[in-house]
Each structure stands twice: as C-alpha cells, then as structure tokens.
Amino acid sequence: MKGSKPQLIAEGKRIDGRGPADLRQIRMEVGVLKNADGSAIVEIGNTKVLAAVYGPREVVPRHEEQVDRAIIRCRYRMLSFSTMGERKSPAPSRREIELSKVIREALEPAIISSQFPRTAIDIFVEVLNADGGTRTAGITAASLALADAGIPMIDLVAAVAVGKVDGVIVLDLNEIEDMYGEADMPVAAMPSMGKITMIQLNGVLTPEEFRYALRLALDGINKIYSLQKETLKKKFVEVEE
Ligand code: ADP
C-alpha cells in the first residue's frame, strides 16, 4: 500500500543510484524453454519476465480462425510470488486482462501474420519478479520469443518506460518511482522502422516534458534493441558452432 512519499531524487541521483537517463542493468536470453516454439527471459533491474510463444498452430476454438491471416493471442500474468509486498491473487485481474491486450497490440504491427492464414500464434508473458516496467519488459521479451520461434516480423519491438519523479524526467522507472512519481509513460517501438507501436501516459507532462521524455524513451529503446539483436545473433552463432 502507498505510504508517505520518499525523496526520489537527491543530488541528481535516483534512489537506486542511477542518473535520470540511465537504464537499469539488462540481461536477455532466448531459447530458455524446450517445449515452446520460442522463448526468452528479460531481466531489467529486479524486474524479471519470461515469454513463451507457441505457433503458428491450429486455432482452437475453430470459429476464431481468420482466412487471410494468423490470429495473435496474448496472455500477461504476474505470478503470485512476483510482487514486493503482499502476494498477488492468482485469479486474473482486470489489470492483467488489460495488459494482455496492450502487449498484443504493441507486437501485432511487427508480425507478418498474412503468411499463416487459419492459424494462431499464442504469446504468454509471465512476470517472475516485479519491480516496475513489467509490461515493457514483457513486450521486449515477447518480441525476442517471436523471433526465436521463427515468426516472420518486419522488425523487433523493444520497449521501456519514462516518467517524471520529483520534477525530473527519468528513464526506466522502478516500482517506487512508478508508485510515487508524477508521471509514467511506457513506450514501445520498432526502431529500424521508426514506428511507435505503444505509448501510454499515466499522470501529467507539459508538451516540452513530453517531447523530451519521448526522446529519452526512444534512446533507451535503441539500446534495448541492440541488446535484443546481440542476444539473437549469439544464439545462432552458438548453434552453428
Ligand atoms: P508496469 O509493471 O508495466 O510498470 P504498472 O504501472 O501497472 O505496470 O505497475 C507498476 C509496478 O507496480 C509493477 O511493475 C509491480 O512492481 C507493481 N505492481 C503492479 N500490480 C501489482 C499487484 N497486483 N501487486 C503488487 N505489486 C504490483
């Protein structure tokens, strides 16, 4: 529960020691699940997310199939032990249902679904440990898992949140900053296409703050995108050797 607001910025540093434009430490790995067609783990600071992709596969129930494309389905879930304070209820919450839709919509523009008519591509995002930015880590991980599954895409999708804490625009908010900050703006993009596929804003930013925050988010996204590509290349090099 929300207590009294802690000081979030002191002498230009954030509560975890980062500068305003710094990402948390990131680790990525693909092909972590044998039974999935594609999978990935993304860790960003203490947030840890697992994504699994199955398909293209037969559509069940059949009436959902589309004659001209694959349907994309997504389920985002937080494990009950993933949260800091109280254990999260295992029942699907409204937030999880909404985030499942948000993540799907952020990924859909990248997927060339017309290549697989009458099939389904199922994406599962499981939050193993939550410390802010789970939807954005989920998008980054799911995009890697789609690539790992060999699903054709026009680009990878990478995502990160920006926000405003103690009046300062910061990149990649942790849970405390998300909870007590003035604004939180998750962004997802296909960097080499120069296209934003998701942008949400919770809180208030001035037009200048918004423009700066978006630039900061896109810089962060470019760094995450480079790591995604490196991670995928590493897997293929390892397989070839
Ligand atoms: P995001 O994880 O994308 O930042 P939110 O802004 O909704 O999404 O959540 C911010 C953070 O608050 C989460 O990353 C998580 O650390 C925490 N959180 C969200 N929902 C819950 C919950 N039901 N129980 C405990 N912590 C939660």
From TrEMBL:
One GO CC term on file: exosome (RNase complex)
Task: Report keywords, A-Z.
Answer: Cytoplasm, Exonuclease, Exosome, Hydrolase, Nuclease
Give one Pfam family. RNase_PH
Extract one GO molecular function annotation from the record: 3'-5'-RNA exonuclease activity
Q: Could you tell me the EC number(s) of this protein? A: 3.1.13.-
Q: Which InterPro entries match?
A: ExoRNase_PH_dom1 (IPR001247), ExoRNase_PH_dom2 (IPR015847), ExoRNase_PH_dom2_sf (IPR036345), PNPase/RNase_PH_dom_sf (IPR027408), Ribosomal_Su5_D2-typ_SF (IPR020568), RNase_PH (IPR050080), Rrp41 (IPR011807)
**Domain of life where this protein originates:** Archaea
GO terms for biological process, alphabetical: gene expression; nuclear-transcribed mRNA catabolic process
User: SUPFAM superfamilies under this entry?
Assistant: Ribonuclease PH domain 2-like, Ribosomal protein S5 domain 2-like
Q: Where in the cell is it found?
A: Cytoplasm
Q: How does it assemble?
A: Component of the archaeal exosome complex. Forms a hexameric ring-like arrangement composed of 3 Rrp41-Rrp42 heterodimers. The hexameric ring associates with a trimer of Rrp4 and/or Csl4 subunits.
Q: Which family does it belong to?
A: Belongs to the RNase PH family. Rrp41 subfamily.
What name appears for this protein in its UniProt entry?
Answer: Exosome complex component Rrp41
GN (gene name): rrp41
